[in-house]
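BACKBONE GEOMETRY TOKENS
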Amino acid sequence: MDKSLLLPREKYAEVYEKYSRGPSMFEIENDKQLFFYFGANHSRNPADPQYPALREYWHRFLKETEGKDRIVLIEGSLRPVEKDEETAITNGGSEGGFITFLARKAGVPIACPDLSDEELIKLLPYQDKNEVLLYWFLSWLNNFQKHAEPKPDFEKSAKIWCERQKKKQMWKDIDISLPRLKELYKQILGKDFNEKENPNNLVNPNLTDTKINKIARAQSDLRDYKIASEIERYWNEGKNIFVVFGQGHLIIQEPALRAVLR
């Protein structure tokens, strides 16, 4: 995979205008294989219209690839299989949990071509782990805010997130607590933390306004290259591929995938 085939970040805003605000999809087909890409919005609301759209797209893929070698690729990490669709969305990580539930039901294998947190922390060209920690916390907050009402308790949920981070070797000797994260927010961004304020612009890799944006861009560039490269590898192995990632990844990866999946 040639990195230059990915959409340059500087062109993202212009290209984004060509996409709908809802989920985006594109397909590639040759005489042997099918490739379906569903670009999602990370909603944790089971009533979000993206879920009927994803189910319909999935059923089409199953029908058109029946009896063929196929695989589902999801974002972030592999999920446990939840008891039902609603729990898969609310507890299983939005569309990643939902497609995991559907794929397991259909007996289709699932893989995650993404970089792990540990891999990213080694590859990121930043030495200040506190800045990276704040970026990951704000990414978590961005996802947390996409829960349907009534949302889970913020303080309790943030504490659980902090406890999970503390167990990771990469944060050794780093103080991880909500009070400390609030201090870092003030120190790095110059304003008081408000859990109800939308952090989307801060974690947007297509902006360069803050240190957090620059970390987001560096991380997203690494991830998009790895994901697109893995998709190319699975395709070259002869697999029919169903990808479910955020819409932003679809936009960045589409030109590269159209160039190499033939």
In short: The longest helix spans residues 211-236.
